[in-house]
Design goal:
Length: 86
């Protein structure tokens, strides 16, 4: 997915490594597991660490223009979220 077009018209270029608009939403219990693992002598390898995060996290894109968040669904589609205004 080299480019992603936001509803506001902004096009996010995702083909140049990890851009600032690409985030991961990681459950707190997974972060806790990883922290505990780091303290152990035979804890996770860097590869296992990345696998653990990747398998449990949700990919999020944050539009730099409108701050809308795009959360990836399991089927690869995205749902958008934007700040509510009264
Ligand atoms: Zn946008």
């Amino acid at each position: 997915m080299p480019k992603f077009a936001c509803r506001c018209g902004c096009v996010m270029n995702l083909s140049t490594g990890w851009s600032d608009c690409e985030l991961s939403l990681v459950p707190e219990n997974i972060i806790e597991e990883l922290i505990v693992s780091l303290d152990k002598e035979n804890g996770l390898s860097a590869e296992q660490f990345v696998e653990k995060i990747d398998s449990k996290s949700i990919e999020v894109l944050r539009c730099p223009q409108c701050n809308r968040l795009w959360l990836e669904n399991e089927d690869g589609s995205y749902n958008s979220y934007i700040k509510e205004t009264e």
